[in-house]
User: What shape does this take?
Amino acid sequence: MTITTTTAIAVYFLVWWVTLFAVLPFGMNKQAEDGDDTPGRDPGAPIVHVMWRKLGWTTVVATIVFAILAAIYLSGVIKLDWLIKTFGPPKSF
Assistant: This one.
């Protein structure tokens, strides 16, 4: 089985994007938890902006997940025909 570069990039981007939303809430300290009751501020806003760290962790986790998925696909453990049959579009009525 082979995989084109464009497909690999597209799949990696999708894995990275989903991983970003999974990583975003980790390590977030809210202003309400800190006791900051300043009027006009959202109590759920983070105290410290750590987006670069979250983007780094997202890249690390997404790369590991993508490598595992690519290894499973390229080894032939999961066949493309099975994926299409299982997760493909529904049969017409």
Summary: Residues 5-87 form one domain.
